[in-house]
Amino acid sequence: MTEDLLNIVTDIDKCSKARKGSYIYPIARVHCNYDGEQKSFWFTNRSVTPREIGSLKNFGTFVHKYSDVAIRMMKINVGSSFDYSTKNYIKRMVDHEVVVENRTDFNNQTIEIAGDSLVYQYRSISTFLSALRQNKEDIADTKENIAQLLKFPTCK
For residue 94, which phi and psi values (nearest 5 degrees)? Predict the structure, then answer.
């Protein structure tokens, strides 16, 4: 399931609220298809311990921005794929296939989505989220009005 813009912004806003009081400051978020599973990666300025993450683990995996996977995900074009190898707990190489579906850069405040030629830019994630929700409501109202108008033919 590919995330749409509203889902991306909602997830970022929820994570931002959940991070209040912690010292975890992500610089980017990438949602991808990682070995056939949907995963979100949050890139941080420092290594984060599992104890620090706590309830944030529900939002995805937090990794250092200079880790190999973070560098590759940030350099590749959105919608592209790459193969990635890691060592497992018994020191054997495990190959992974990664397809980057969307990327959010918190420094530049941009969101890129695979298959969408637009790059969305925002100033405040909460303001952007409320504007998206308002637009969604306006579109639903307009569709309802059109459906009502199509039901009743006009007299001439």
Answer: -125, 130
pLDDT at res. 154: 61
pTM summary value: 0.82
- Cα separation, 52 vs 62, in Å, equals 10
Cross-strand bridge partners of residue 62 = 42
Q: Residues for the chain: how many in total?
A: 156
Q: How many domains does the chain have?
A: 1
CB 111 within 8 A of CB 100: no
The residues with which 98 forms a beta bridge, in sequence order, are 34, 82
Match 């949602």 to its residue by tokens.
Answer: 31
Please check whether residue 139 lies inside any domain of the structure.
no
pLDDT-derived band of residue 141, with 50, 70 and 90 as boundaries?
A: confident
